[in-house]
Design goal:
By secondary structure, this protein is mainly β. Helix content is 3%, strand content 20%.
């Protein structure tokens, strides 16, 4: 993080640009780090052509074991692609708006109108059976990403 923090201007007062910086550590570039990482517990994969190249291509894939519970609703099984030239793939999809079911608490929304939630997420970049979308408010809508080959030259998920 020390090396990454030195790459851009940021201020400690702005939480949007703030990066953790441990000044006791040397600022080393991430040459020893893998260019891909699978976060198994949350079902997220991050892949980069090169961590050090500001013109890199990055792909992110989410297939969460939590299904459509929590924050794993509309982007479940979705791929996002980003490059220095712009966004390659980031369509949020088509959504079905649902009222909050009885007994289901949405904290922080402030009212019934604001308690509407989005779930379907069916578009060309989301892998769903028969274009049915994510199962609503169910853990049964879970997914899994499985790394099959990770090396210095190629990463296959």
């Amino acid at each position: 993080m020390q090396w990454y923090a030195k790459q851009a201007d940021y201020t400690y007062d702005d939480f949007v640009t703030y990066l953790y910086e441990d000044t006791t550590l040397p600022a080393r570039p991430p040459v020893e780090m893998p260019s891909a990482k699978y976060f198994e517990q949350i079902g997220t994969v991050a892949m980069h052509s090169s961590l050090m190249d500001p013109k890199r291509i990055s792909l992110f894939f989410k297939s969460s074991p939590f299904g459509s519970l929590n924050h794993s609703h509309a982007d479940q099984n979705n791929m996002i692609g980003i490059s220095a030239w712009g966004t390659l793939s980031n369509s949020p999809g088509l959504y079905e708006v649902l009222e909050a079911p009885p007994g289901f608490v949405f904290d922080g929304f402030g009212g019934v109108k604001e308690a509407m939630y989005l779930f379907l997420g069916a578009n060309a970049k989301i892998i769903v059976p028969n274009a049915t979308g994510t199962l609503k408010l169910r853990r049964a809508g879970s997914g899994a990403a499985t790394p099959s080959d990770q090396s210095a030259d190629v990463d296959v998920i």
